Predict the 3D structure of the following.
Amino acid sequence: MASLSGSMRGYMREPRLMSVKKPVLYVVSPCYNEAEVIGAFYDALKAVLSSLKDIDHRILLVDDGSSDATLDVLNALADRDERVLVYSLSRNFGHQVAISAGIAKSRGDATIVMDSDLQHPPTLIPEMLVSWRAGHDVVSAVRRSTDDATLFKRLSSDGFYTVINWLSDTRIEPGAADFCLMSRKARKVLAGMPERHRFVRGLVAWMGFRRAYLPYVAPPRAAGHSKYSLRKMLRLALDAVFAFSVAPIRLATRVGVGIAALGALYLVYVIGRALWLHDTEPGWSSLLGTLLILGGLQLAFTGLIGEYLARIFEQVKGRPLYVFKQTPEERPRRATSAAAKKNARTEAPLEFANEQG
Ligand code: UDP
Ligand code: MG
Protein backbone atom coordinates (compact mmCIF):
# COMPACT_ATOMS: atom_id res chain seq x y z
CA MET A 1 0.00 0.00 0.00
CA ALA A 2 2.83 2.27 0.99
CA SER A 3 4.56 1.64 -2.34
CA LEU A 4 1.29 2.22 -4.20
CA SER A 5 0.74 5.58 -2.56
CA GLY A 6 4.41 6.37 -3.36
CA SER A 7 3.90 5.63 -7.04
CA MET A 8 0.63 7.57 -6.98
CA ARG A 9 2.47 10.55 -5.62
CA GLY A 10 4.85 10.21 -8.55
CA TYR A 11 1.89 10.00 -10.90
CA MET A 12 0.36 13.08 -9.36
CA ARG A 13 3.57 14.95 -9.85
CA GLU A 14 3.91 14.00 -13.49
CA PRO A 15 1.31 16.29 -15.01
CA ARG A 16 3.08 19.21 -13.42
CA LEU A 17 6.32 18.18 -15.09
CA MET A 18 4.53 17.72 -18.39
CA SER A 19 2.97 21.15 -18.24
CA VAL A 20 6.38 22.87 -18.21
CA LYS A 21 5.78 25.64 -20.66
CA LYS A 22 7.69 25.94 -23.87
CA PRO A 23 9.38 29.25 -24.54
CA VAL A 24 7.43 31.47 -26.89
CA LEU A 25 8.86 33.12 -30.00
CA TYR A 26 7.17 36.19 -31.45
CA VAL A 27 7.74 36.99 -35.11
CA VAL A 28 6.98 40.65 -35.87
CA SER A 29 6.44 41.66 -39.50
CA PRO A 30 5.40 45.02 -40.91
CA CYS A 31 3.13 44.85 -43.95
CA TYR A 32 2.45 47.77 -46.25
CA ASN A 33 0.40 47.00 -49.35
CA GLU A 34 1.66 43.43 -49.37
CA ALA A 35 -1.62 41.64 -50.20
CA GLU A 36 0.08 39.80 -53.07
CA VAL A 37 2.88 38.35 -51.00
CA ILE A 38 1.50 37.84 -47.49
CA GLY A 39 0.03 34.41 -48.24
CA ALA A 40 3.37 33.04 -49.50
CA PHE A 41 5.20 34.69 -46.59
CA TYR A 42 2.84 33.14 -44.04
CA ASP A 43 3.13 29.66 -45.62
CA ALA A 44 6.96 29.78 -45.67
CA LEU A 45 7.15 31.18 -42.13
CA LYS A 46 4.58 28.77 -40.70
CA ALA A 47 6.39 25.78 -42.25
CA VAL A 48 9.57 26.75 -40.37
CA LEU A 49 7.84 27.66 -37.11
CA SER A 50 5.74 24.48 -37.04
CA SER A 51 8.89 22.40 -37.45
CA LEU A 52 10.34 23.86 -34.23
CA LYS A 53 9.17 21.40 -31.61
CA ASP A 54 10.77 22.96 -28.56
CA ILE A 55 9.39 26.47 -28.94
CA ASP A 56 5.88 27.84 -29.37
CA HIS A 57 5.24 30.83 -31.62
CA ARG A 58 3.05 33.81 -32.38
CA ILE A 59 3.05 35.70 -35.66
CA LEU A 60 2.44 39.38 -35.00
CA LEU A 61 1.59 41.21 -38.21
CA VAL A 62 1.41 44.98 -38.28
CA ASP A 63 -0.55 46.49 -41.15
CA ASP A 64 1.06 49.88 -41.76
CA GLY A 65 -2.07 51.65 -43.03
CA SER A 66 -2.19 49.71 -46.30
CA SER A 67 -4.51 50.92 -49.02
CA ASP A 68 -4.89 47.52 -50.69
CA ALA A 69 -6.46 44.32 -49.31
CA THR A 70 -3.57 43.62 -46.91
CA LEU A 71 -5.66 44.00 -43.73
CA ASP A 72 -8.36 41.65 -45.05
CA VAL A 73 -5.71 39.07 -45.93
CA LEU A 74 -4.15 39.40 -42.47
CA ASN A 75 -7.55 39.08 -40.75
CA ALA A 76 -8.31 35.99 -42.83
CA LEU A 77 -5.01 34.47 -41.66
CA ALA A 78 -5.91 35.25 -38.04
CA ASP A 79 -9.30 33.54 -38.58
CA ARG A 80 -7.46 30.41 -39.65
CA ASP A 81 -4.60 30.46 -37.17
CA GLU A 82 -5.04 31.53 -33.57
CA ARG A 83 -1.29 32.11 -33.35
CA VAL A 84 -1.61 35.05 -35.74
CA LEU A 85 -2.12 38.43 -34.07
CA VAL A 86 -3.06 41.36 -36.28
CA TYR A 87 -2.50 45.02 -35.47
CA SER A 88 -3.40 47.74 -37.92
CA LEU A 89 -2.11 51.31 -37.84
CA SER A 90 -4.53 54.15 -38.57
CA ARG A 91 -2.38 55.38 -41.50
CA ASN A 92 0.98 54.74 -43.11
CA PHE A 93 3.48 55.54 -40.36
CA GLY A 94 6.46 54.01 -42.13
CA HIS A 95 8.50 50.84 -41.79
CA GLN A 96 10.47 51.85 -38.68
CA VAL A 97 7.39 52.90 -36.71
CA ALA A 98 5.46 49.77 -37.80
CA ILE A 99 8.35 47.64 -36.50
CA SER A 100 8.39 49.64 -33.26
CA ALA A 101 4.64 49.12 -32.77
CA GLY A 102 5.10 45.38 -33.30
CA ILE A 103 8.00 45.21 -30.86
CA ALA A 104 5.98 47.12 -28.26
CA LYS A 105 3.15 44.61 -28.55
CA SER A 106 5.31 41.51 -28.64
CA ARG A 107 5.70 39.35 -25.55
CA GLY A 108 7.36 36.01 -24.93
CA ASP A 109 10.95 34.94 -24.60
CA ALA A 110 12.37 36.00 -27.96
CA THR A 111 11.23 38.29 -30.76
CA ILE A 112 12.27 38.16 -34.39
CA VAL A 113 11.66 41.15 -36.64
CA MET A 114 11.49 40.43 -40.35
CA ASP A 115 10.08 41.88 -43.57
CA SER A 116 6.95 40.31 -45.00
CA ASP A 117 8.13 40.16 -48.63
CA LEU A 118 10.28 37.01 -48.17
CA GLN A 119 13.52 38.98 -48.62
CA HIS A 120 14.29 37.91 -45.07
CA PRO A 121 14.33 34.12 -45.42
CA PRO A 122 12.42 32.33 -42.60
CA THR A 123 14.82 29.38 -43.04
CA LEU A 124 17.36 31.43 -41.06
CA ILE A 125 15.16 31.31 -37.93
CA PRO A 126 16.42 27.95 -36.53
CA GLU A 127 20.01 29.21 -36.74
CA MET A 128 19.02 32.47 -35.00
CA LEU A 129 17.45 30.46 -32.20
CA VAL A 130 20.64 28.41 -31.80
CA SER A 131 22.62 31.64 -31.29
CA TRP A 132 19.99 32.95 -28.87
CA ARG A 133 20.11 29.71 -26.86
CA ALA A 134 23.91 30.03 -26.80
CA GLY A 135 23.42 33.23 -24.83
CA HIS A 136 23.24 36.06 -27.37
CA ASP A 137 20.68 38.78 -26.65
CA VAL A 138 20.70 40.13 -30.19
CA VAL A 139 21.19 37.97 -33.28
CA SER A 140 21.40 40.09 -36.42
CA ALA A 141 21.10 38.67 -39.89
CA VAL A 142 23.64 40.41 -42.11
CA ARG A 143 22.80 40.72 -45.79
CA ARG A 144 25.83 39.73 -47.83
CA SER A 145 24.16 40.53 -51.14
CA THR A 146 20.72 41.00 -52.62
CA ASP A 147 20.03 39.00 -55.74
CA ASP A 148 18.05 41.73 -57.47
CA ALA A 149 19.52 44.92 -55.91
CA THR A 150 20.10 47.70 -58.42
CA LEU A 151 23.54 49.27 -58.69
CA PHE A 152 22.07 52.48 -57.26
CA LYS A 153 20.64 50.69 -54.21
CA ARG A 154 23.94 48.89 -53.56
CA LEU A 155 26.08 52.03 -53.95
CA SER A 156 23.75 54.23 -51.90
CA SER A 157 23.60 51.60 -49.16
CA ASP A 158 27.42 51.21 -49.04
CA GLY A 159 27.88 55.00 -49.07
CA PHE A 160 25.31 55.44 -46.32
CA TYR A 161 27.00 52.96 -43.96
CA THR A 162 30.41 54.53 -44.59
CA VAL A 163 29.10 58.02 -43.78
CA ILE A 164 27.05 57.03 -40.74
CA ASN A 165 29.95 55.06 -39.24
CA TRP A 166 32.26 58.00 -39.85
CA LEU A 167 29.83 60.40 -38.17
CA SER A 168 28.48 58.29 -35.34
CA ASP A 169 30.06 56.80 -32.23
CA THR A 170 27.70 53.84 -32.43
CA ARG A 171 29.05 51.28 -34.90
CA ILE A 172 26.35 50.18 -37.31
CA GLU A 173 27.22 46.97 -39.10
CA PRO A 174 26.77 47.38 -42.89
CA GLY A 175 24.07 45.03 -44.16
CA ALA A 176 22.64 44.38 -40.69
CA ALA A 177 19.22 45.88 -41.31
CA ASP A 178 16.16 45.15 -39.23
CA PHE A 179 16.14 41.35 -39.61
CA CYS A 180 17.14 40.29 -36.12
CA LEU A 181 16.24 38.28 -33.06
CA MET A 182 16.07 39.89 -29.64
CA SER A 183 15.91 38.27 -26.24
CA ARG A 184 13.12 39.37 -23.90
CA LYS A 185 15.60 41.62 -22.11
CA ALA A 186 16.80 43.35 -25.31
CA ARG A 187 13.27 43.66 -26.65
CA LYS A 188 12.13 45.40 -23.47
CA VAL A 189 15.01 47.88 -23.64
CA LEU A 190 14.20 48.68 -27.28
CA ALA A 191 10.47 49.00 -26.56
CA GLY A 192 11.30 51.43 -23.75
CA MET A 193 13.12 53.89 -26.02
CA PRO A 194 10.78 56.82 -26.61
CA GLU A 195 12.58 58.27 -29.66
CA ARG A 196 10.28 59.45 -32.42
CA HIS A 197 12.62 59.48 -35.39
CA ARG A 198 13.46 55.86 -35.18
CA PHE A 199 16.38 54.23 -36.90
CA VAL A 200 15.77 50.83 -35.36
CA ARG A 201 19.03 49.15 -36.44
CA GLY A 202 20.94 52.05 -34.86
CA LEU A 203 18.95 51.71 -31.62
CA VAL A 204 19.68 47.98 -31.61
CA ALA A 205 23.40 48.67 -32.09
CA TRP A 206 23.31 51.32 -29.37
CA MET A 207 21.80 48.88 -26.85
CA GLY A 208 24.91 46.74 -26.83
CA PHE A 209 24.42 43.29 -25.24
CA ARG A 210 26.04 40.10 -26.51
CA ARG A 211 25.45 40.15 -30.21
CA ALA A 212 25.86 37.54 -32.95
CA TYR A 213 25.84 38.06 -36.72
CA LEU A 214 24.53 35.56 -39.25
CA PRO A 215 25.25 36.18 -42.93
CA TYR A 216 22.53 35.59 -45.52
CA VAL A 217 21.80 36.32 -49.17
CA ALA A 218 18.56 38.22 -49.68
CA PRO A 219 16.46 36.72 -52.47
CA PRO A 220 14.42 39.02 -54.72
CA ARG A 221 10.99 40.07 -53.46
CA ALA A 222 8.51 37.19 -53.79
CA ALA A 223 5.88 39.54 -55.31
CA GLY A 224 4.95 43.19 -55.52
CA HIS A 225 7.42 46.05 -55.58
CA SER A 226 9.62 47.84 -53.04
CA LYS A 227 7.72 50.21 -50.73
CA TYR A 228 10.89 52.15 -49.98
CA SER A 229 10.71 55.12 -52.31
CA LEU A 230 13.77 57.33 -52.78
CA ARG A 231 12.08 59.86 -50.47
CA LYS A 232 11.57 57.29 -47.71
CA MET A 233 15.18 56.11 -48.08
CA LEU A 234 16.46 59.66 -47.79
CA ARG A 235 14.29 60.32 -44.75
CA LEU A 236 15.63 57.19 -43.08
CA ALA A 237 19.22 58.22 -43.84
CA LEU A 238 18.63 61.69 -42.39
CA ASP A 239 16.95 60.23 -39.30
CA ALA A 240 20.00 58.03 -38.85
CA VAL A 241 22.43 60.94 -39.17
CA PHE A 242 20.54 63.33 -36.92
CA ALA A 243 19.66 60.70 -34.32
CA PHE A 244 23.11 59.18 -34.08
CA SER A 245 25.46 62.05 -34.62
CA VAL A 246 26.06 65.58 -33.47
CA ALA A 247 28.98 65.74 -35.91
CA PRO A 248 27.11 67.97 -38.45
CA ILE A 249 26.34 70.54 -35.79
CA ARG A 250 29.94 70.41 -34.55
CA LEU A 251 31.08 70.80 -38.13
CA ALA A 252 29.05 74.01 -38.30
CA THR A 253 30.90 75.39 -35.29
CA ARG A 254 34.30 74.35 -36.65
CA VAL A 255 33.68 75.74 -40.14
CA GLY A 256 32.32 78.98 -38.61
CA VAL A 257 35.36 79.43 -36.36
CA GLY A 258 37.70 78.53 -39.26
CA ILE A 259 36.14 81.07 -41.61
CA ALA A 260 36.13 83.79 -38.94
CA ALA A 261 39.84 83.14 -38.26
CA LEU A 262 40.66 83.32 -41.97
CA GLY A 263 38.65 86.57 -42.22
CA ALA A 264 40.59 88.09 -39.30
CA LEU A 265 43.93 87.11 -40.87
CA TYR A 266 42.82 88.58 -44.18
CA LEU A 267 41.81 91.82 -42.45
CA VAL A 268 45.23 92.12 -40.76
CA TYR A 269 46.87 91.55 -44.14
CA VAL A 270 44.71 94.19 -45.89
CA ILE A 271 45.30 96.77 -43.15
CA GLY A 272 49.05 96.07 -43.29
CA ARG A 273 49.14 96.58 -47.05
CA ALA A 274 47.05 99.77 -46.77
CA LEU A 275 49.38 101.22 -44.13
CA TRP A 276 52.74 100.28 -45.67
CA LEU A 277 52.24 99.75 -49.39
CA HIS A 278 49.26 102.06 -49.98
CA ASP A 279 48.15 99.85 -52.92
CA THR A 280 44.72 98.52 -51.85
CA GLU A 281 42.04 98.57 -54.51
CA PRO A 282 38.36 98.74 -53.67
CA GLY A 283 37.48 95.11 -54.61
CA TRP A 284 33.71 95.06 -54.87
CA SER A 285 33.40 91.75 -56.68
CA SER A 286 35.58 89.85 -54.23
CA LEU A 287 33.65 91.44 -51.39
CA LEU A 288 30.35 90.35 -52.89
CA GLY A 289 31.71 86.83 -53.44
CA THR A 290 32.84 86.57 -49.84
CA LEU A 291 29.49 87.87 -48.65
CA LEU A 292 27.56 85.34 -50.71
CA ILE A 293 29.70 82.45 -49.50
CA LEU A 294 29.39 83.51 -45.89
CA GLY A 295 25.65 84.20 -46.23
CA GLY A 296 25.13 80.78 -47.81
CA LEU A 297 27.14 79.04 -45.12
CA GLN A 298 25.21 80.83 -42.41
CA LEU A 299 21.89 79.81 -43.94
CA ALA A 300 23.04 76.23 -44.39
CA PHE A 301 24.16 75.92 -40.80
CA THR A 302 21.06 77.64 -39.47
CA GLY A 303 19.09 75.01 -41.40
CA LEU A 304 21.20 72.31 -39.84
CA ILE A 305 20.51 73.58 -36.36
CA GLY A 306 16.85 73.78 -37.41
CA GLU A 307 16.90 70.06 -38.23
CA TYR A 308 17.90 69.20 -34.69
CA LEU A 309 15.49 71.76 -33.28
CA ALA A 310 12.58 70.39 -35.31
CA ARG A 311 13.33 66.93 -33.97
CA ILE A 312 13.45 68.21 -30.40
CA PHE A 313 10.15 70.00 -31.01
CA GLU A 314 8.51 66.83 -32.31
CA GLN A 315 9.82 64.90 -29.34
CA VAL A 316 8.52 67.38 -26.75
CA LYS A 317 5.08 67.48 -28.33
CA GLY A 318 4.76 63.99 -26.90
CA ARG A 319 2.28 62.67 -29.43
CA PRO A 320 1.99 58.89 -29.57
CA LEU A 321 4.39 57.30 -32.02
CA TYR A 322 1.54 55.45 -33.75
CA VAL A 323 -2.21 54.92 -33.52
CA PHE A 324 -3.93 51.55 -33.88
CA LYS A 325 -7.16 51.37 -35.77
CA GLN A 326 -7.44 47.65 -35.04
CA THR A 327 -5.95 45.42 -32.34
CA PRO A 328 -6.33 41.62 -32.14
CA GLU A 329 -9.30 42.03 -29.76
CA GLU A 330 -11.05 44.30 -32.27
CA ARG A 331 -10.55 42.04 -35.27
CA PRO A 332 -13.85 41.51 -37.06
CA ARG A 333 -14.60 37.80 -36.49
CA ARG A 334 -15.85 35.87 -39.46
CA ALA A 335 -18.79 33.61 -38.59
CA THR A 336 -16.90 30.32 -38.53
CA SER A 337 -18.64 27.03 -39.08
CA ALA A 338 -18.72 24.46 -36.26
CA ALA A 339 -16.36 22.25 -38.30
CA ALA A 340 -13.84 25.06 -38.68
CA LYS A 341 -14.00 25.79 -34.94
CA LYS A 342 -13.38 22.11 -34.17
CA ASN A 343 -10.46 22.17 -36.59
CA ALA A 344 -8.96 25.20 -34.91
CA ARG A 345 -9.01 23.37 -31.58
CA THR A 346 -6.79 20.54 -32.82
CA GLU A 347 -3.78 22.74 -32.09
CA ALA A 348 -2.67 23.07 -28.46
CA PRO A 349 -4.69 25.80 -26.69
CA LEU A 350 -2.76 29.02 -26.37
CA GLU A 351 -1.31 29.95 -23.04
CA PHE A 352 -0.37 33.55 -22.59
CA ALA A 353 0.68 33.11 -18.96
CA ASN A 354 4.41 33.09 -19.66
CA GLU A 355 4.18 35.84 -22.22
CA GLN A 356 3.51 38.69 -19.89
CA GLY A 357 5.93 41.53 -20.28
N1 UDP B 1 6.98 48.64 -45.06
C1 UDP B 1 6.12 49.22 -44.13
N2 UDP B 1 5.81 50.54 -44.27
C2 UDP B 1 6.33 51.33 -45.25
C3 UDP B 1 7.25 50.74 -46.16
C4 UDP B 1 7.55 49.39 -46.04
O1 UDP B 1 5.63 48.54 -43.22
O2 UDP B 1 6.01 52.51 -45.30
C5 UDP B 1 7.31 47.19 -44.93
C6 UDP B 1 7.09 46.36 -46.17
O3 UDP B 1 5.78 45.84 -46.20
C7 UDP B 1 8.14 45.27 -46.01
C8 UDP B 1 9.25 45.96 -45.27
O4 UDP B 1 8.69 47.11 -44.67
O5 UDP B 1 7.67 44.18 -45.22
C9 UDP B 1 10.41 46.38 -46.16
O6 UDP B 1 9.94 47.16 -47.23
P1 UDP B 1 10.39 46.91 -48.75
O7 UDP B 1 10.51 45.44 -49.01
O8 UDP B 1 9.46 47.63 -49.64
O9 UDP B 1 11.83 47.61 -48.75
P2 UDP B 1 13.15 47.09 -49.51
O10 UDP B 1 13.32 45.64 -49.13
O11 UDP B 1 12.90 47.27 -50.95
O12 UDP B 1 14.24 47.96 -48.97
MG1 MG C 1 11.99 44.16 -49.38
The chain has two domains: 24-227+320-343, 247-316.
